[in-house]
Amino acid sequence: MSQVRRQSAMRPRPSWGWQDRAACRGEDLVLFFGPDGERQPEREIRERKAKEICAQCPVKTECLDYAISRPEKYGTWGGLNEDERASERRRRMRRANAA
């Protein structure tokens, strides 16, 4: 138990200031996280709309970096869905290991 506390205490606390400047601020969360039982065609439409907002976002990079560093398992963050973020996370890990 104390080991778990030590590990979580070592993880830097996130800075949330970037969220105040996010293009998604005030948008419906369902657009970015989707409802339970959502079908694939509806998901694709919803994700496309969310990614359009992300594409114009001034803090897209900070959002994506946050989601990858946690890692956030659900939703659209920084313009990437769950599968795309998992691929990006693997790509970043490969790059870090190669350096």
Automatic annotation (TrEMBL):
InterPro entries: 4FE4S_WBL (IPR034768), Whib (IPR003482). One of its GO terms (biological process) is cell redox homeostasis. It comes from the Bacteria. GO terms for cellular component: cytoplasm. One of its GO terms (molecular function) is 4 iron, 4 sulfur cluster binding. Residues 78-99 are annotated as: Disordered. It is found in: Cytoplasm. Signal peptide: none annotated. Residues 88-99 have a biased composition (Basic residues). The keyword 4Fe-4S applies. Its cofactor is [4Fe-4S] cluster. [4Fe-4S] cluster binds at residues 24, 54, 57, 63. The keyword Endoplasmic reticulum does not apply. Binds 1 [4Fe-4S] cluster per subunit. Following nitrosylation of the [4Fe-4S] cluster binds 1 [4Fe-8(NO)] cluster per subunit. Its main location: cytoplasm. Upon Fe-S cluster removal intramolecular disulfide bonds are formed. The Fe-S cluster can be nitrosylated by nitric oxide (NO). Residues 23-87 form the 4Fe-4S Wbl-type domain. Keywords: 4Fe-4S, Cytoplasm, Disulfide bond, DNA-binding, Iron, Iron-sulfur, Metal-binding, Transcription, Transcription regulation. Belongs to the WhiB family. Acts as a transcriptional regulator. Probably redox-responsive. The apo- but not holo-form probably binds DNA. This is Transcriptional regulator WhiB. The lineage of its organism: Bacteria, Bacillati, Actinomycetota, Actinomycetes, Streptosporangiales.
